[in-house]
Specification:
About 5% of the residues have low confidence. This protein has 2 domains: 114 residues, Response regulator (Rossmann fold, 3-Layer(aba) Sandwich); 105 residues, Arc Repressor Mutant, subunit A (Orthogonal Bundle), CATH 1.10.10. The strands form 3 sheets. The protein has a 5-stranded parallel β-sheet, with helices on both faces. It has a 4-stranded antiparallel β-sheet with strand order 6-7-8-9, with no helix packed on it. A 3-stranded antiparallel β-sheet has the order 10-12-11. The termini are far apart. Helix 2 runs parallel beside helix 3. The longest helix has 13 residues. The protein is α/β, with parallel strands linked by helices.
Length: 234
Amino acid sequence: MKILIADDDPQLLRALRITLTAKGYEVITAADGAETVSTVADRRPDLLLLDLGMPRLDGVDVIRAIRGWSEMPVLVVSGRAGSSDKVEALDAGADDYVVKPFSIEELLARIRALTRRQPGHEAVQEAPAARLGTVTVDIAAHTVVDTGGGEERRIRLTPTEWLIMELLIRNAGRLVTRQMLLTRIWGAEPARDTGYLRLYLAQLRKKLEPDPSHPRYLLTEPGMGYRLQLDDSR
């Protein structure tokens, strides 16, 4: 598996190259935003580890540039810890976000989650698809389609968002705890809720809910977790 690391810190590039190579990954690097875009086009990596604050082209602009023609997972690795930075990166098309400094165990868990086979490879026995108003989320077909407004519009979900939706759809009408979601996303590694779940659910509501500020389908159970409440499961 080929990973492109894009960062203007040569020491971090060297450390990550050594660590990821030792784990069996093929590693290539880029030191600025423009080089990152050209390297993605030329080398076709399987995953991009991307810093946001790079010369020549900001990381968010890099994401927007490659999202027009690539669905490759993008894991942002940045010192920018503000919620607005995370939201901007996720809105641009990033799939996950890790704040520096980070543990290598956490980074490896995020990489494994993003490179895991896409949701939908398992048989979904109870609900291969769910309808949220005019939006249909089809786990088996791996598509999200909004038919509101008289025409069909495709909605892109990130790999992490697909993992969340698959678990919620399989448990429609039932509580899904935060720990269940964290384990589903990041595997058997010790999971801590650092606010990422709230951020991802906010992103999903923006994409899927008719009124994200007053969610009808993706409900929060305070202190416990989340519930997918479909019209036919009330």
